[in-house]
Amino acid sequence: MTQPPVSVVIVSRGRPDALRVCLTGCMQLLYDPFEIVVVADPAGVAAAQALPFAKQIKIIGFDDANISAARNVGINAAAGEIVAFVDDDAVPEPTWLTHLTQAMQHNDVVVAGGYVRARNGISYQWKGRSLDALGDAVDMPVTGLEPVVVQPTPTRCAKTEGTNMAVRRDVLLEVGGFDPAYHYFLDETDLNMRLAKAGYACAIVPRAQVHHGFAANKLRRADRVPTDLFDIGASWAVFQRKFIPQDKRRDHWRVIRMSERRRAVRLMVSGHIEPRAVTGLISRLDQGYGQGIARRMGEGHITQTPNAPFKRIAPLSGAMSYLAARRSNAAKARTEALHRVKNGEVVTLIILSPNALYHQARFHPDGYWEQRGGLFGKSSRCQSLLKFWRFNDRFSAEKKRLSAIRGGSD
């Protein structure tokens, strides 16, 4: 069966190094046909244009600090039937688009979201979540790896993560894309709520996974400590005006404000911020809330016809391969991995050391997946703290675990 054309939209601001890695990973997506649309500030544009495959992707300059407006620019340039979104500090698994689009073959599914791996590449940052009428997200029980279709109700709908989601372009046109009133935070939550209000179902797709590096930006540090809560306050004000009855907004804001203050106090107690920063953060939260009350809403403009033709990425010429190495041979193995990448292969390198260290995984800037850890160490939460393995047996077990998501088991 012919696969629907997909446009992958990546918005980037202030993170050119992360964008390079993200784009390198996206070029290894095992899907055809797809295109890549980058919407970035000058530093991001320069980084994308310097990559060897730059001529294959759409690169659009955009220097406003507004992720919703930037995504709408990307949607207007997207010529695919489906528009997928991934953040510039994330890298999707090679099979990401395949799993998302397959879940969207159901007639009533117009939006799909997958799981997000945390910075260590092993544990999950987010799995399936749902939203209540107040915009609060809670974990949703999803068992196994098969997609789950969630029908909206008057009080609850599925939540997709902005760094791992896909929506049919015609539906984005229908609902007006992302609301630029959300400069940062709650942008995809707002879209989820509007799609649910329109009666559309959402698929949660466990196998559609991205690895989220959670890089620093102007509002948070790399360790996820916030540096400014202005936009969070503003976005909550916009959300209240759109979805929460007037008589419930004061109490709702009181709960949000108290939650943010408690978070700031916890960070102070743990030594992550200074005591004076608590007052500053909450003051900025209040200032943002005040501005959000006056922001103009619902002005996202999506063009019916894309402003550029579909720009198909050339499919990879090579296969998928898994390599194993002992820590003592890691340098040689990395050289071999790089050689295979240059030949068009999607490469996973597993480096095992003679200890019980926990495993970590990442997409290497040179273009291959690298997992490191102890021969006897944990690579998932369900494993025992210590288990004795032979080298080849451990490699086979890790290959089997990874191939359930990444593919290439044969």
Automatic annotation (TrEMBL):
InterPro entries: Nucleotide-diphossugar_trans. The keyword Transferase applies. Pfam families: Glyco_tranf_2_3 (PF13641). Keywords: Glycosyltransferase, Transferase. Transmembrane segments: none annotated. GO terms for molecular function: glycosyltransferase activity. It comes from the Bacteria. The keyword Glycosyltransferase applies. Belongs to the glycosyltransferase 2 family. This is Glycosyltransferase.
